[in-house]
Design brief:
Elements (H helix, E strand, L loop, with lengths): L1 H14 L5 H50 L34 E2 L6 E2 L14 E9 L6 E11 L5 E11 L14
Antiparallel strand pairs: 1-3, 2-3, 3-4, 4-5
Length: 184
């Protein structure tokens, strides 16, 4: 009797030392689902990183265009030597349903798309950003100018995205305090 109980204990301890085939298969299925979830998370992370990069580039290009337009001479009472394309354009145009319609002024040329370096040279990257602008007088005042810059682009799925910046400035050669052009 003693011998039988020792054999039973030995057989039961030998059985509990390893895993059964079903336990291994179940563990592999759980591991597979976990790895697939990580893979999907990684793919979503890469897409989000690309969207953030394009939005950052659009913002940088909009800031660059705004700086360029802020340094330009706009039409005032004395239009001599001033680019007529920079005249105030009237009221802000109607908005497309997506809110990203192209504005009437073209920063880089009508319909010209640029890459992240504001260049049309595609060896530096895809030319996918369109920079447009609009200028108008602020209210009834003709000495203050509202400048809007919009950079729009399409993502891989064809959806349109964009950034719009706005700023006001005094029209060139306006010097209400008689301090000279450097005061503007």
């Amino acid at each position: 009797m003693l011998k039988t109980s020792l054999m039973t204990r030995r057989n039961s301890s030998e059985r509990s030392r390893g895993f059964t085939l079903i336990e291994l298969l179940l563990a592999m299925v759980v591991l597979t689902f976990g790895l697939l979830a990580l893979w999907a998370l990684h793919a979503a992370s890469i897409q989000a990183s690309g969207r953030a990069y394009r939005l950052g580039m659009a913002t940088t290009l909009a800031q660059d265009a705004m700086e360029k337009l802020m340094s330009e001479a706009f039409l005032s009472n004395d239009p001599s030597g001033v680019n007529p394309d920079l005249a105030p354009m009237g009221i802000f145009p109607a908005v497309d349903p997506d809110g990203l319609d192209d504005l009437p002024g073209a920063v880089d040329g009508l319909g010209v798309q640029v890459n992240s370096l504001a260049s049309t040279n595609t060896s530096f990257g895809p030319a996918m950003f369109l920079r447009t602008y609009h200028t108008q007088n602020v209210g009834a005042e003709t000495d203050r100018l509202l400048i809007r810059v919009r950079v729009s682009y399409y993502d891989d799925s064809g959806k349109r995205h964009g950034v719009t910046l706005a700023s006001t400035r005094l029209v060139d050669r306006y010097d209400p305090m008689g301090l000279g052009v450097s005061s503007i």
